[in-house]
Design brief:
By secondary structure, this protein is an alpha+beta fold. It has 2 domains: 77 residues, 3-Layer(aba) Sandwich (Glutaredoxin), CATH 3.40.30; 108 residues, Glutathione S-transferase Yfyf (Class Pi), Chain A, domain 2 (Up-down Bundle), CATH 1.20.1050.10. Helix content is 58%, strand content 8%. It contains 8 helices and 4 strands; from the N terminus they run E-H-E-H-E-E-H-H-H-H-H-H. A 4-stranded mixed beta sheet has the order 2-1-3-4, with helices on one face. Strand 1, helix 1 and strand 2 form a beta-alpha-beta unit. Helix 1 runs parallel beside helix 3, helix 1 packs across helix 6 and helix 4 runs parallel beside helix 6. The protein is globular. The chain starts with a strand and ends in a 7-residue tail after the last helix. The protein binds glutathione. Glutathione binds next to helix 3 and helix 4.
Length: 203
């Protein structure tokens, strides 16, 4: 299998952490791919019309894209059951959706700063994105820490990668303030070998 990959993409990191946790790393070749909405990678577009990483070429069907789809496929392939069953499954999916929502908002903030000309930026819009992240962190802190503290699952992987990205790109916003339980959980989760092995290069 071939994974269209970027060292700094938090969505790719979800896939990489899952590959580490499920022992499938050797089954995937990594193809470094630089892509943005205003400079999409031509060869990636032929496999993922959305022009986004991660995308996974596989022998048994069309290229998979969107980290959620790729993670579900690789979990199934390994029989790892990181999405759980019954009520646990709905919890995991809600946590992954929350984590991906944090990432979507954080990436928009990063693109705003990097890709949009300064005179066209809109503070209220940027703060609106940060509001989503702040509310999601507060909800994780008050509602989800005991779920996050169980045996490793895809909800934890997604939240771990999302918080690591907020720290990496928006560290000066101080997401830990008022979120002590979540910060303590993250400190432990971040020390997992799968998280250490997938750290992005210094910003
Ligand atoms: N929902 C997608 C997923 O979970 O895989 C989001 C993937 C995504 O936005 N990846 C970014 C990208 O490829 C890199 S971090 N951006 C290029 C673009 O938006 O055109």
């Amino acid at each position: 299998m071939k994974l269209s990959y970027s060292k700094t993409s938090p969505y790719v990191r979800k896939v990489m952490v899952l590959l580490h946790e499920t022992g499938q790393l050797a089954d995937v070749a990594l193809a470094d791919t630089a892509t943005t909405p205003i400079a999409p990678d031509d060869s990636l577009i032929s496999r993922n019309p959305l022009g986004k990483v991660p995308a996974l070429e596989r022998p048994d069907g069309p290229t998979l894209y969107d980290s959620r789809v790729i993670c579900a496929y690789l979990d199934d392939r390994a029989g790892a059951k990181l999405y759980g069953k019954g009520q646990h499954r709905w919890d995991v999916l809600t946590l992954e959706a929350t984590a991906d929502g944090i990432l979507d908002a954080a990436l928009l903030m990063v693109y705003e700063g990097k890709l949009r000309p300064e005179d066209k930026r809109m503070d209220a819009w940027v703060e609106g994105q940060w509001g989503k992240i702040a509310r999601a962190c507060a909800t994780l802190n008050t509602r989800w820490v005991s779920q996050l503290s169980g045996p490793v699952d895809m909800g934890q992987i997604a939240v771990g990668c999302a918080l690591a990205y907020v720290e990496f790109r928006l560290g000066d916003r101080g997401w830990r303030t008022g979120n002590d339980a979540l910060a303590a959980w993250f400190k432990t989760f971040e020390s997992r070998p799968s998280m250490q092995a997938t750290r992005p290069p210094a910003a």
